[in-house]
Write a structure and sequence with these properties.
It is globular and about 60 Å long. It contains ten helices and two strands, in the order H-H-H-H-H-H-E-E-H-H-H-H. The N and C termini lie far apart (about 130 Å). The chain has about 375 residues and is an all-alpha fold. Helix 2 runs antiparallel to helix 3 and helix 3 packs antiparallel against helix 5 (about 180-195). The relative contact order is 0.10.
Amino acid sequence: MGLFLKYICSRRMKQSLARHESTYNRGKERTFELENASINYQRVFKGIFAMETETTNITSNQIDITIHKAVSTLLSGLGTIINSVAIIAVLKGKLYSQKTFKVVLNLFVSNLMMSAVALPLFIVPAFLTFPGNDVTCPFSGFIIYSFCGVCLLSNILISLHHYILIVHITKYEAICSVRNTWIALLFTWFLPPFMFIFPLTEVWGRFIFDQRTLDCTAMNNLDSYRIYILISSFFTCFPPFTFCYIAITRKAISTRHQITIMQTENRQRITEQRQLIRTILLIITIFTAMNLPYFIFTLWDPQKVKVNLSVHGLALYLGMCNYFFNTLVFLTTNRHMKLSLQKTLRFMFKTMWTSLILISKFN
C-alpha cells in the first residue's frame, strides 16, 4: 500500500512538473513572438519614415527645380531682350564706326550669346525627367563655360580700353589702333574655348553632371584643373579691375578740380569725360559685386557641402544678372546710346503698330 501511494505521488509530481515546464515554454514562445512583432513593427515604422523622408526630399527638390526653372528662364529672357535691343541700337545709330563702341558692341554680343545660348543649355536638364551625365554633358559644359569666359574677358577689355581713353588720352590712338583692337577682340573670343578644350577631351580635368545643381561643371572636381581655372580667373580679372578703378577714380578727382577753372567751351568736353568715368566705374563695381560671391563660394566650397545649396544658387543667379545689368548701364548713362536707343524704340513701336493695323484690316 505504501509503495502504491509513493507511485501515485511521484506520478502526480512528474505531471505537475511537466505542466509547469509546458507553461514556461509557452511563455518563452510568447515572449519570442512579442519580440519578433516589436522588431517587425520597428522595421515597418522605419520603412514608413524613410518613405516619408524620401517623399519630403523629392518635394523639396521639386520646389528647388521649379525655382531654378523660373529664375533661370526669366534671367535668360531678360538678357536676350535687353542685349538684342542694345545691339540693334548700336547698329542703327552706326556707333560701331567708333573704336570705343567696338568693344562696347563686343560686350553686348557676348552677353547676348550667354543669355540666348549658354543659359538655355544650363536650364535644359531641369526640364528632363532623368537628367544625367550623358554624352551631351561635356559639350554643353564646354559651351557654357566658354561663353562665360568670353563675357569675363569682354568686361576686362572694356575696362582697360576706357582706362586708356580716360587716363592716357594722348596715347589712345597709338595703343588702341584698329589692328590692336581686332587682335584684342579675337583674343577675347578664342582664349576661353582653348582653355576648356582640356576638360572636354578629358586630357586635363573633366565635366561632371551635378545632380544637386543640375548643371555640367568642371568646378566640383578637387583636382589641379579646378585650381588652375580659379587662380587664372582671379588674377586675370580682379587685379586689372582694381588697377583701372583706382586710376580712373584718381582721374575723376583731378577732373572735378579742373572743371571749376576751365572755360565754358571746354566744360562740355570735361562733362562728357566725367560721364564716361561714371559709366566705367559703375560697370566695374557692378561686375565685381555680382560675380565675387560666386567666385568665393566656388573656391571655398567646391563640393557644395559647407554652405547651404540655396546660398550657392543665389550667388549663381546674382552672377547671371550681370549679363544684362552692365548693358543697362551703358543704355542709361551714355548720351549717344540713349539717343540711338530712343530712335530704335520709336522705330520698333512704329513697326509693331503698323503690323497690328495691317493684321486688323485683313481680319
